[in-house]
What we know:
With about 300 residues, this protein is an alpha/beta fold. The protein is about 45% helix and about 10% strand. The chain contains 13 helices and five strands. It has helices at about 20-25, 30-40, 45-50, 55-60, 65-80, 85-100, 105-110, 115-125, 160-175, 200-210, 225-235, 240-245, 285-290, and strands at about 130-135, 145, 180-185, 215-225, 250. Strands 1-2-3-4-5 form a five-stranded mixed beta sheet, with helices on one face. A hairpin with a 5-residue loop joins strand 1 and strand 2. The longest helix is centred in the first third of the chain and has 17 residues, at about 85-100. It is globular and about 50 Å long. The two termini are about 25 Å apart.
Amino acid sequence: MTAASPSQSPSTSRSASPAFSEKSYGTTTTEDDLLDQMLEELSSEELEVAAKASYEYLVNPDVTETRSFAKRLALKYLRAKDGNLTKALQRLKETLQFRVDRDVDGLCTAFSEGGNLEYAKRLEEEMQCKNLYVQGYDKQGRSTYVFIPRNVKEHDDEWTIKQHIYTMERAIAASRSDDKTVNAMVDFNGFSLSNAPPMHIGKEFMNTFRNHYAGAINNIYLIDAPTSFYYLWTIFKPLIGQKTRNKIHFIQSGNNGLDKYYEPEQAASWMMASGTKNRELDANEYLHGTPFNHAFDE
Length: 298
């Protein structure tokens, strides 16, 4: 196993987008002022961590763009907290500490030249069950975070969460939409409670995504959720913020309306009846042969 891969080097075929512009993010004058205030409250180290939340900056850091890239992350929290500066700043600082504690940057670059070999090895092991990956884009360019619970074989206190963090970070990096958001598709066919995580891992998962990925999700589609899942839903629902709940849709496979948002060649047949993107995940190709900021089989 070799962690370094030419395809995961900082140089990729996708052109870089501007770090931050009021036009592309649609910020108001008030938001711009609040963003400047948020950034003024960050140390130089925190600014760097915030900027590195954008994969473009992580692999090609430019000190002249640090504040601009940091604004991307700050804006998500400002909007998630409805413009409340105090709450947004608090959550932003908590997320910056989370990224350091979890070594999120190390996860993102595990398969790049000089990457963390231990992380690469563990991610390879976790990905063999093919339960988590990024594949396909909606009509607005949002990448698709795919989760297949029936493929989960076991749960690990540390790496179950890290595998989800890795996949979310990849989805965000791959997103082509102006707002860099992603869609999540969960295929519940074949799910049983034996696939469900222990309660403490489930709660940590919910808290991680609620607290540290504010504004990253556009919509979450739970497809063919069985009756057994609704038992878990009653437990975990209180941990999900109202804004996120509004983005969760329980739908059935088949003619479910997803074709309004996805072209057939960008969706699997289990997602929608006309979907044709049915290639099974090749974990080796995904991890070693596909750039981090690209979806599998794009």
